[in-house]
Design brief:
- By secondary structure, this protein is an alpha/beta fold.
- It contains three helices and four strands; from the N terminus they run E-H-E-H-E-H-E.
Length: 86
């Protein structure tokens, strides 16, 4: 299983990584501070995640914009949105 975690705030990304590794210790995990980096990993390196934990509000490509692109590249990937906003 391949899991992506995407968050532009390093402390939140580290927390997500810690929780994911604890919940799924056998999964491969890749972290990204920018959604565009995750899109590049998918489209150029053929790394297709099974699950993505993604912040919604990020500079550049937002989490929602990322989800639209991701579903075009990998319709079966599950997305879990995370945010600190109401």
């Amino acid at each position: 299983m391949l899991i992506f975690a995407i968050d532009d705030e390093p402390p939140m990304l580290r927390d997500a990584e810690r929780v994911i590794r604890k919940a799924a210790p056998d999964a491969a995990l890749m972290t990204f501070e920018l959604a565009s980096e995750a899109i590049t990993a998918i489209s150029e390196q053929s790394l297709v995640p099974d699950i993505v934990f993604c912040d919604i509000e990020m500079p550049g490509l937002s989490g929602l914009e990322f989800a639209v692109r991701l579903k075009t590249l990998s319709p079966e990937t599950r997305i879990v949105f995370v945010t600190g906003y109401d």
